[in-house]
Amino acid sequence: MNAARTVLRGVLILHPWAKLGGSMEDPTVITQFRAAIESGLFSHVCRYNMRGAGASKTKWTKNIWDPDIQDMLLVAQHLLQLPNGPKELVVIGYSYGACVAANLMEHVPEVVAYVAIGFPLGGMANLALRSRDHWQHLADTPVPKLVVQGTRDKFAPMTTIRDYAQQYHDMQPAPGPLDLEIVDGADHFFDGIWDMVAEKVLAWIQKQLDAQQVAGA
Hints:
- The protein is built from seven helices and six strands, in the order βαβαβαβααβαβα.
- It is α/β, with parallel strands linked by helices.
- β5 (about 145-150), α6 and β6 form a beta-alpha-beta unit.
- The longest helix is centred in the C-terminal third of the chain and has 23 residues, at about 195-215.
């Protein structure tokens, strides 16, 4: 059963850090965007440039993520308030985008699934982005979550990813399901396997939506 046509549903796709060249034209983001449209799961598919990407401007401040989080909340609310807009949202974040997206669920109850691709939990990334603080927001809601991670990701060593995933699963009370999808041999950029990653993400989303539909029947 395809859960797509039972409810208007949107997906928001967030890109890597603009300061390092990230934008909505990133290959991982573009592939996720196109695959989401072709999947038929979504009535609304949205990607946009965060501050400092493309033609947008920004002033790099200490808490660089705060303006991006506020912008994301505004974009999500805009989607939800459109005429015939979505009633549910899925959020997909890649790299820094996964950090920003982790802050959406506690503010927007319409979010029904969260996907992180290459969550940058490594030491240097944490110093620059406070990524481990953003990770903690994953425990704030019972929304189902997927983390897709390559075994050769220099921004997030596998030992760190597994340790943080285990800490999440050990929390009491349980904060909701979190699945870890390991892509053997992949680095942070998933070069040449963008389609495969998109297939894994959409298959997981389909599974969650079908389960939610059955639970609500």
